[in-house]
Amino acid sequence: MNSKERLQKNLRFIQTDRPPIFASFTAQAAEKLYRYFGMEPQKPLDSPLSSLRISFQDLLIKLGADCLCVAACAPDNTPTTQSVDGLSINEWGIGTRSTGLYDEFALFPLSHAESKKDIEQYSFPDPNAPGRFRFAEQTVKQS
């Protein structure tokens, strides 16, 4: 039974050879697994939806995962930047600070919003910006 068959049957509550496998890794765990398998490490993707959830696809395939997560990534024209005080600031203006294993939210672009006008003045990212879905499209084509 292949991954697609396994997932389709499970979604219809039909018993399969085993439950489908989905996993995600911290960057530290992925690094150790890459070393163990002698694979060239991938860098985590630049995604506002949590890069670790959609990164390390080659490792997941090697381990036999049935599901690969895809999501929007930062577009070509607005990659995540690093501030002088160590914050990673994404295209939404959300800032995170690395604590080692995970990042914690530290900057909230709408924290000052008190009215509808405040929200309307916020510059939302372009959902159709070039590059936003490149990784998702490539991953779907490969699987």
The strand line-up of the biggest sheet is 1-2-3-4
From the spread of the alpha carbons, the general shape counts as: globular
Record field, number of beta strands? 4
Question: Which sequence of SSEs, written as H and E, runs from N to C?
Answer: HHHHEEEEHH
| β-sheet strand percentage | 5-15%
Question: What is the tally of helical segments?
Answer: 6
Assembly type: single chain
Structural class: alpha+beta
Cα-atom Rg, whole angstroms?
18 Å
Major beta-sheet overview: 4 strands, antiparallel
Separation, N- and C-terminal Cα atoms: 15 Å
On the 0 to 100 scale, the average pLDDT is 90
Uncertain stretches of 5 or more adjacent residues: none
Give a verbal description of the structure.
- The structure is a single chain.
- The chain is an alpha+beta fold.
- 31% of the residues lie in helices and 9% in strands.
- The chain contains six helices and four strands, in the order H-H-H-H-E-E-E-E-H-H.
- Strand 1 and strand 2 (88-89) form a beta hairpin.
- It is globular, with a radius of gyration of 18 Å.
- The mean pLDDT is 90.
